[in-house]
Here is the input.
Amino acid sequence: MRLKVEFTTEPFDLDEAPAHALVAREVIEAAELDAVDVGPFGNTAEGGADAVLTAVDALLRKALEAGATRVSLQVNVVEEGEA
Here is the structure.
């Protein structure tokens, strides 16, 4: 099974990316995922279920430790052939 995760961390800072946002991006970029898209207001990544779930666990733990007060995420099953 393939999964797609979309997430944001808060609080926002429009002048400079906060530590929790940088940590969250590092976790996702270092994970064994594909189709990673990192943006200023949201991030997405796709991969096998185990890899996505492992990355989400690390993302939540590390972003909260780095000062996030809220992490919003959505996980969807990606059907074969979807991009």
The chain has a mean pLDDT of 91. The longest helix spans residues 49-65. The chain is about 35% helix and 35% strand.
